[in-house]
Design a protein that fits this description.
The structure holds two protein chains of two kinds.
Chain A (H helix, E strand, L loop, with lengths): L2 H18 L2 H20 L7 H18 L17 H6 L3 H9 L5 H10 L4 H8 L3 H22 L6
Helix pairs in contact in A: 1-2, 1-3, 1-5, 1-6, 2-3, 3-7, 6-8
Chain B lengths: L8 H7 L12 H9 L4 H18 L5 H6 L13 H6 L1 H26 L4 H13 L6 E2 L7 H9 L15 E8 L5 E7 L5 E6 L16 E5 L2 E8 L2 E8 L2 H8 L5
Antiparallel strand pairs in B: 1-2, 2-3, 3-4, 4-7, 5-6, 6-7
Helix pairs in contact in B: 1-2
Classes of the chains: A mainly alpha, B alpha+beta.
Chain lengths: 160, 258
Amino acid sequence: MAEEEKQNLLQLYRFCYLMVADAAKAQEIFHATLREAAQQAADGEAPRDRLWFFRNARWRCLEVSEKGLQAEDVDLEEGELAESGPSQIEKLEPQQFAIWISGAPEPQRTALALFYLDEFSHRDLLSVTELKPPELAKLLARGRREFQAWLDATLPVTQI
Amino acid sequence: MSAAVQLSRRDRMLLHCAPLREDHVDDRALRSALHHARQTPGLAVQQSFDRAAAAVVQAVPIPQEIIDWVPTDTYIAPTRRPWKKYAQNPAFAATGIAVVVIAIVAIFQLVDRLNRFPGQSTAQRLLTTASSNKSMMLDPVKTDAGALGDFLFMKHRLAHYDVPPEFAELKTLGCRVFDDEEGQRVAQVWVVEKKMQFFLFPAERDPKTGAAKHFNGWRHIDQDRWSGVVKEQNGVCFMAALRGSEKDLAPYISKKKE
């Protein structure tokens, strides 16, 4: 297996983790996705591209999320991106970020998780999220502002 | 995204999707938006914000089990480049166009070759003669065209210069025998019907053996709004020519006669 493909699969695990914010569930979804890919490959219908893995895992994550605790559907505060944003983010633990992303409503959750994986081209992102450019732009822009507001509330600049 | 540079609404919208890596920009509009906004502070803030968030994601620990479990064989089907991708490649497109042009020329040449027949060049030349002659130039001979074979044999010693049965019943106005540019004896007959002309001339011969080159059935030729149908029999070619098209001659040659 090419090293690139292996890295893709490791990113798949990170994607699952961001979507559900639970290492055990992420691992379970990761395994289930790979099992299905293996099954399809054995049947002579191997997935056409790496996007298949992320699409498949996405729906599994959403299914798992529906069974667990649901985030409240509230309008989050939004804040303008601050220059202090990156230093605030640096203080975050990956799990905190995953919890924040997994609490986002769909399809914003998928959009943010895939975008911050920094793994996909613009077109790939649109393909996996099944969104149009203006929709994706709106979700990402709002996500950033909400995240900034959350950072300001959780890690105020004065604490840094 | 506040900036001194005036960005269009579409650019501002697309910049929200700006990937962190240059190689992830695979959309022309997005590339253009990034180019327009490359020096705006808003984009710089957004990108450093995104970069920091992406770094946190890359810090997500991957359990050893996952690293160990990643299969050693690939599950992704080999990439098949769709034909459209090939077609968009200028080298393939140019080669493709060249191949198509060559194929078209080859087909034309093949069709032309298939339609060629021995004596075609003579027939073509005589078609020009037909278009430039008047009936007054001929000796008046009023008879059935079918009877001319004997006349040509008796008077000019031209053996097998027979009018085929398809045209044998047509009434003639006149006839002449002359030598063409190659010294071949050609009989020219003027017919009443449709101001048609007949030509009888020796079939093309094999330069080595001297034997006449035969061909079967009627062959059609066109030149300067004149049309002719040619048939070879017993080493002599017969051509019926008229001013018009193949359609005007078709009714005659479609008749089956003994």
